[in-house]
Each structure stands twice: as C-alpha cells, then as structure tokens.
Amino acid sequence: MNLVIDDACYAYRTIFGAFGDIKALPGRSINKKSVCDADILIVRSRTKVDKNLLDGSSVKFVGSTVAGLDHIDLEYLEDNKITFFSAQGCNSMAVAEYVISACVNIAYDFNFELKNKTLGIIGVGNVGSKIAKKAKNMGIKTLLNDPPRQEKENLSNYVDLKTALGADIVTFHTPLTMHGKHKTYHLLNENNFSYISNKTILFNAARGGVIDEDAWQKNKTFANVIDCWENEPKINSTLQNNAYWSTPHIAGHSIDAKFMGSYMIYEKLCNFLNKDIEKNIKNLVNKNTVNINHKNLKDILNAIYPFIQDSKAIEDINKFEDYRRNYPERFEWEHFETKLKLP
Fold first, then answer.
1. According to the 3-state scheme, what is the secondary structure of 149-191?
2. pTM of the predicted structure, to 2 decimals
3. Pick the residue with more confidence: 212 or 66?
4. Fewer CB in a 10 Å sphere around the end CB: N or C, the chain?
5. 207, 253, 324, 330: which one is catalytic?
6. Is 207 among the catalytic positions?
7. Is 253 a residue of the active site?
C-alpha cells in the first residue's frame, strides 16, 4: 500500500509506517503526479484536495490532521466514493490557551482587570466553547454568538453578531465557509466594522478570510492579535506591523495538538482497513509534568510558552512558512505544575 503524507504531520513514520510505503512531502509540494499511485493521502492545511489533485489517482482514503476544512473539496470526495476524515477538535485546547494567554498579556501590559471586561466569542464550537469555559473560570463575562448552533439547539443565552461585536474583547472561532445561510467569509466586513470600536481588542485565530483585512486595516482598534491571515504566507504587512501579536498560523501548533491530529486519522485509517489499533501509539507524547515557580499568571503562561517569540520570528515575513514548518516544541498547560491554578 502506498501512502503520501505531508511531512509536517506529527511522527508520521512511527504512526503510519505499518500501513505501507510512505512518500513524505511538504504540503505545498503534494501534486497530481505525486499522488497518482497513492492509495492513502494524509495532509495538513497546505494541500488543496480536489479534482485537480486526485482525478485519475488510486486514492481511496484521505485524512486531514488539522481541524479546518476549507482546503478539502468534500463534494468531490463524496461523489468519487473517497473516504474522508478530518481531525476536528484536535487543536482546540491549544488555540484556547493561545487566546487566553494573549488576553492575560494584554491585561498586564495595559493595566486592566480581565474580570471587568466582556468577551465576545463568535463561533462556539470546539475552540470557542473551551475559551468560554476558561473565561468563566476567570470571572469574565462572555457574549456567545453561533447562529448554526443556536438554530439547532435553541440556545437562549446566545446573542446576535452585533451584540458580540460590541464586547471589549472579540475573538473569532468559526470555520471558513464561502456559501450558504451562515457563510463566514468576511463575516466581519466594512458594513459591520462600525460595531468594533477603537477600544476593542480583536482576535483572528480562526481562519484567514473570516475578517475582511482591507476593512480591518482602515479601522483603529485598541489591540489586534492575528494568527490567521488572508493570502498566507503573503500576509498583510500593515496589520502585521500594527498588531499586538502577529503570528504565523500557529495558535494550534502544540505538540499535543499535532499528535492528536495524527492519532485521530490513525484511528480512522485502522477502522477503514480493518486493522487493530496499536496501544503504544497513544503514548507517544510524554506526560511528565514540569514545575513553574512564577507567582503571577502572565509570567507563568509566558514561561510555559512565550508566544511573543512567534511574533518576532516573522518580522521578516519571508520566514513565515519556514518558521511554521519548523515550529519550536510547545506543550499545553496540562504538562505543567504551577503555583496558581490555571483557568
């Protein structure tokens, strides 16, 4: 059996080696020629999986080890009876920790109490729900907006988009969808940016394109934290230079998240091929705890991982993709023992 795998997939040889011969390539280099004889294709976000890639190939299973779906033509895969699975939720804790860490840093740097602020969370799925829980633990009032969930679940405590955009801190956690009743492409745009004030702290750690960057760069905010960009890796230099943090789409790049992305696809592939799951695979990430002795939350979180180094790393935007592909090790909060209880 032949497998083509994005070489940024975590521990791909250890996890998928027993299935057959592996051809590992950078995601952007996976093309029609490289997959023509493949049976299995495993990608991250940098490979567009559609007819142009797969037409005429022998691929019968596609796995995506990331949460997003905008690089996958689901209709084509379904029409051609190609089995597909994605690692939905694999990086949700990493992104939630990124957002909370940024909020804590901003609060310390500008000397205000987060518990006196409101947090508008737009998209309350895997990531947004975790942020909401952490915010509640910190005493922050949340304004939750998620029309698809509200319609399905009749959630009375959710608010409309205008209300959520009026929060002190606004963070987006929707998928990127181009069509339909609840499309999210340019969800925040020149027509509704007026609900964002010059005192708003604004995040995009969802998908590039959820916020209209042309409108964003024309409107002053209190602070911007940007991890997801339109036209990556050719990012908006105006927004980058004016951001509090500007990072290269790495909010979800913890070791835990990368492993879970690979492991979730491994489980699905075992099921697809009627193979038994090897129990030792699940223990690849070391769960030993590390002690952090700092006394305030900002110093603790920055000792766990100083996100500011990600911002500095791409001051030269030509390093965006290389830094992202060779991202330093970062572990989630569960690996650390701290003097303060983390939210």
1. HHHHHCCCCCCCHHHHHCCCEEEECCCCCCCCCCCCCCCECCC
2. 0.93
3. 212
4. N
5. 207
6. yes
7. no
Residue 173 a catalytic site member: no
Give percent of the chain above pLDDT 90: 92
From 71, 149, 249, 330, the catalytic residue: 249
Q: Would you say domain 2-86+255-282 falls under CATH 3.40.50.720? A: yes
- b/e map 258-268, b = 16+ CB within 10 Å: bbbbbbbbbbb
Residue 227 confidence (pLDDT):
98
Query: In the chain, where are the structural domains located?
Result: 2-86+255-282, 92-246
Q: 187 and 174 in contact (C-beta within 8 Å)?
A: yes
In the chain, DSSP assigns E strands to: 2-6, 21-25, 40-43, 61-64, 83-86, 118-122, 141-145, 169-172, 201-204, 223-226, 245-246, 290-292, 336-338
Instruction: State the catalytic residue, choosing from 182, 232, 267, 335.
Output: 232
Tokens, residue 173: 């956690």
Query: For residue 156, what are its two tokens?
Result: 């009375």
Whether residue 283 is predicted with pLDDT greater than 90 in this model: the reply is no
Six token digits for residue 164: 């959520």
Nearest C-alpha neighbor of 104 from the set 301, 265, 288:
301
- Measured distance CA(27)–CA(173) in Å, rounded: 24
Using DSSP, state whether 321 is helix, strand or coil.
Answer: helix
Pick the CATH number of 92-246 from 3.40.50.2020, 3.40.1360.10, 3.30.200.20, 3.40.50.720: 3.40.50.720
